[in-house]
Structure formats: C-alpha cells, structure tokens
Design goal:
Strand order of the largest sheet: 2-13-12-6-11-10-9
Distance between the termini: 27 Å
Helix content: 25-40%
Order of helices and strands: EEEEEEHEEHEHHHHEHEHEEHH
Largest sheet: 7 strands, mixed
Radius of gyration: 19 Å
C-alpha cells in the first residue's frame, strides 16, 4: 500500500527520461499480485476508487485498481491502446452503465458518497461529474441552446436573464465567448473542430460540475486547437477536478499534476508527472515512455 501523497505542482515542461533501458527480452506484463507503485493516494481526495474490477461479459478489462483523485487536481491517465484507461475513466460517472454486459465491482466515492449506490440518481451524477469525449459532439442546436440545455433540464435557471448569464459565463470559462458572442443563435455544428470541443466543455461546465472527465479531448484537433484546450485545462483546474485520458505523453507532461500508467487493465504506477517522465519507478512505465511499445 502506498503512502498518502500531496498533489505535486505541474511541471513546466517535459524532461527527457534518463532511466536505464529495459532489456529487450524482459516480458511486458505485470506480475500477478504486483501492487501499484508510487503515490496512488492523497490527503485531499475528491474521489476515491478502491479495488475496481470491470468486466465485459466474461472478459475482465480492469483489474483491482485503487487510486484517489485530489480536489482541483489534473490527473492524466496514459498507456497503450486497449490498456483500460478509457474504461476506467467511464466508471467515474457510470457511463459504462449504458454498455450491455458491463459489470463494475469495487467502491467509487466522491466526497465520501458511494457513486454506485442503488439510490443514487445517475442523471444528477453525470451533471456533477461531466464528460468531454474524444470527438466533439455538439447537439444539432444553436450555440446558445447547446450550453443552455443542461441548466434547463436541471432547473438551474429561474428566468431567461439567469439562463443568459449561465450561457455567457460558461462560454467565457471555455475561452469561447469572444469568438461566438455575435452568433449565439447559429448552429454549434458550424464551428471549427477546436471551437466545437470548447463548446462541449462549456456545455459540461454549465451545470456546475465538481469533476470533469476528458477522454482524449484533443486527439481529433490540430496543434493550435490543442494548445487552446490545454491552456483551458490549466485554467479550469482552479475550480474543477479534472481527469484526462490521453495518448500523448507530451500532453500529459504539460497539463497534469500526477500521471497514472495503465497496462493490460492494471494500474502500474501513479506518481507526480515530472517523476513519471524523468525517473519512473516501474520497468513497464519506463518501457512505455521510452517508446519500446505503445
């Protein structure tokens, strides 16, 4: 069991890995019963996950994962394709409930509340734990209605003035207001890819979530749009807790406080981001970030 850790500051830039090279004939697998190395837990946890197992039918996708996410932390989840990082992310707001045959075991809590309690309102949970997907998915509505939709169905605005204020503030927080304020009633689908993704972020934060989950939010964007999203993540972390799945190790190094490395459904290492990319503790983390596989 790892000791509780405080959240590290974001590294200003990614440093080169100086760890020793892994032997070519070393098996790329996690030993049975091997514990996660590093700093999985924190003194200021917003969310706590204990002994999480996820199954799709008879196939186990996540194996006994335990980790905390701290208040106002940005935690990045990295690993090769198929390692389970997106599956694990989706357990945090029960998106896997929509997948037939998916079963989740273990305990996931936010501020001490069990998110898998039968009495929990899942619709309310997904407002509290928002989600931004890999591909921008604005509704086929106006820019205004995309952002206003959540506050309307959750009863967060009593008057049109209140709703206007929520829409404006959300678009400002998503760094999109200045670009769209003169065309709020034009279709959201008419925006560029990067603008659409920021619109989706504005839509997520319009219902005042506590946590924002991001599943590869920049994978379909160009470098300029990606840079804007990364700047936005840093700004949003002042008010929100953020968990991001990314295939880009450079992006993880730029935006996150801690990085969690997944391998074949197991959580191998969690450490402050700078440590992960300069002095990884586990041989598999080192092999991944030095490009031996991925």
């Amino acid at each position: 069991m790892t000791k509780a850790a405080t959240v590290a500051k974001k590294p200003k830039k990614a440093a080169g890995v100086k760890a020793k090279k892994v032997a070519v004939d070393q098996p790329l697998q996690v030993d049975e019963g091997e514990a996660t190395v590093g700093q999985s837990f924190t003194d200021k946890a917003k969310m706590t996950m204990r002994n999480i197992n996820v199954f799709y039918g008879d196939k186990q996708a996540i194996h006994d994962v335990s980790i905390d996410i701290a208040q106002n932390e940005v935690i990045a989840m990295i690993g090769p394709s198929g390692c389970g990082k997106s599956t694990f992310l989706r357990t945090l707001n029960r998106m896997n409930d929509t997948v037939e045959g998916c079963r989740v075991e273990g305990e996931i809590c936010m501020d001490g509340e069990n998110l898998y309690s039968p009495s929990l309102d899942v619709v309310e949970l997904r407002a509290r734990v928002g989600m931004v997907f890999q591909k921008p998915n604005p509704f086929p509505k106006s820019i205004y209605e995309n952002v206003a939709y959540g506050p309307k169905i959750h009863g967060l605005a009593d008057t049109r003035v209140d709703l206007d204020e929520i829409v404006e503030n959300s678009l400002k927080k998503a760094s999109l207001w200045e670009e769209v304020k003169e065309r709020l009633h034009q279709p959201g689908t008419g925006l560029s890819g990067g603008q659409q993704q920021r619109l989706c972020i504005a839509r997520a934060i319009a219902v005042s979530p506590e946590v924002i989950l991001m599943d590869e939010p920049c994978s379909a964007l160009d470098p300029i749009a990606t840079a804007k999203i990364e700047e936005l993540i840093e700004e949003l972390s002042q008010n929100f807790t953020i968990a991001i799945v990314t295939h880009s190790m450079q992006q993880a190094a730029r935006v996150s406080n801690r990085t969690a490395y997944f391998h074949l459904g197991k959580l191998v290492e969690v450490n402050p981001t700078e440590k992960v990319f300069t002095m990884p503790e586990h041989k598999l983390t080192e092999a991944y970030i030095t490009g031996r596989f991925g």
